[in-house]
């Protein structure tokens, strides 16, 4: 995607994605940020620019495959990137591709929930290379009213809705879509099959591939997550497998549009994949000092509350909670309950050969053979 300077039309979806280019003033520091699409509060960028005089150049991606492709060669030119704890962030940590954070320069570091930091320590021993940005689960965006119409007896709390061929067949006319990411989809399919989401056994992979191929004819779109949110909000699909907050943002957009499209989120009862997106600095970042300032800025409670209110993913700063809109704060699909968390699972980075096998399997699923 293009490398725009961020426009400042708060609230508009477009403002989160792109803007007309505006050149930095001569000598002005530019901070290059590479973040997920629909994943920032435009006011936060405006405030950072105003307070620091640093110009933010903001690019977006919408799958881990795209992010890894961009970063694996090095010299991406980015100062701040937002890889998911597993597998991408941990792979970058192990490859030495990230710069250790200078904690002394991140005064707001201590605002993070220590229990959540401990959870990501398995990806980054000592939490040396990343601060937690936002987290969430992987599940289904659904239109409950349409499901009742097309498949009245289908469960509304399970991946059965998508992965049981008899359900997929009935829901196909109403629209099924899956985000295009083997990394982020295969583990949930394995879990639904009762197998280890982190398996490297060829027969497990084959079973997941067969399960996906069995519903392949019923799937209308396999496309990057960034293409699914507005389509879901517009009522184009009845079942979409994607990231939690993207569904909850779609729900909010559908409500604003007022055309009667109801959206719900399902964290599958078989176990939803839990992930953490990390703020990190590439080892070869052109401007690591500005990157540190940006991370420090984001870790402030009021800034994070604004981000959570805008994008509907939970953050790791407990002091932000009182400033999060009650509707967002009390939505168990945004902040999972302790009980729901016991039904989540996390993934590990696979060895390169296993990752390639998974990606080939995904390619066969997409091609339908
Ligand atoms: C934002 C999706 C981010 C979640 N649109 C993926 N980790």
What is the gist of this entry?
The chain is an alpha/beta fold and 369 residues long.
Low-confidence stretches: 1-21
Query: Can you name the CATH architecture of the largest domain?
Result: 3-Layer(aba) Sandwich
Distance between the termini: 30 Å
- Give me the CATH superfamily of the largest domain: Periplasmic binding protein-like II
CA-atom Rg in angstroms: 20 Å
Distinct ligands: pentane-1,5-diamine
Task: State the helical fraction.
Answer: 40-55%
Characterize the overall form. Answer: globular
User: Can you identify the CATH class of the largest domain?
Assistant: Alpha Beta
Overall mean confidence score, pLDDT: 93
Largest sheet: 7 strands, mixed
Instruction: State the domain count.
Output: 2
Number of H- or I-type helical stretches: 17
Percent of residues in beta strands: 5-15%
Q: What structural category do the secondary elements indicate?
A: alpha/beta
Secondary-structure element pattern, one letter each: HEHEHEHHEHHHEHHEHEHEEHHHHEH
Number of beta-strand segments: 10
CATH topology description of the largest domain? D-Maltodextrin-Binding Protein, domain 2
InterPro entries: SBP, Sperm_putr-bd
Pfam families: SBP_bac_8
Subcellular location: Periplasm
Protein name: Putrescine-binding periplasmic protein
């Amino acid at each position: 995607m293009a490398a725009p300077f961020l426009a400042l039309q708060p609230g508009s979806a477009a403002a989160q994605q792109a803007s007309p280019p505006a050149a930095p003033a001569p000598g002005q520091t530019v901070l290059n940020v590479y973040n997920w699409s629909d994943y920032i509060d435009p006011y936060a960028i405006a405030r950072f620019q105003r307070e620091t005089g640093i110009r933010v150049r903001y690019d977006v991606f919408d799958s881990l495959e795209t992010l890894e492709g961009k970063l694996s060669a090095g010299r991406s030119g980015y100062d701040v990137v937002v890889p998911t704890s597993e597998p991408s962030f941990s792979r970058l940590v192990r490859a030495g591709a990230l710069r250790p954070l200078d904690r002394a320069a991140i005064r707001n570091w201590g605002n993070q929930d220590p229990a959540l930091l401990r959870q990501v320590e398995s990806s980054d021993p000592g939490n040396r290379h990343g601060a937690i940005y936002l987290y969430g689960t992987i599940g289904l965006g659904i239109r409950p009213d349409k499901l009742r119409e097309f498949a009245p007896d289908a469960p509304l709390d399970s991946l059965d809705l998508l992965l049981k061929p008899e359900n997929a067949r009935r829901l196909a006319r109403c629209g099924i879509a899956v985000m295009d990411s083997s990394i982020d989809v295969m583990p949930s399919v394995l879990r639904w099959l009762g197998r280890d989401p982190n398996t490297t056994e060829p027969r497990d992979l084959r079973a997941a591939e067969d399960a996906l191929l069995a519903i392949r004819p019923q799937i209308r779109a396999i496309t990057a997550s960034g293409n699914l949110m507005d389509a879901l909000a517009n009522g184009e699909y009845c079942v979409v497998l994607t990231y939690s907050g993207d569904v909850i943002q779609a729900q909010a957009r559908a409500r604003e549009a007022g055309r009667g499209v109801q959206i719900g989120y399902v964290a599958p009862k078989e176990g939803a994949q839990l992930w953490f997106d990390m703020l990190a600095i590439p080892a070869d970042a052109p401007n690591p000092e500005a990157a540190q300032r940006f991370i420090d800025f984001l870790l402030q409670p009021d800034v994070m509350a604004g981000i959570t209110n805008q994008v509907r993913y939970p953050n790791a700063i407990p002091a932000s909670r009182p400033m999060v809109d009650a509707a967002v704060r009390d939505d168990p699909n945004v902040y999972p309950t302790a009980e729901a968390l016991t039904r989540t699972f996390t993934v590990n980075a696979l060895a390169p050969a296993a990752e390639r096998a998974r990606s080939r399997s995904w390619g066969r699923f997409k091609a339908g053979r």
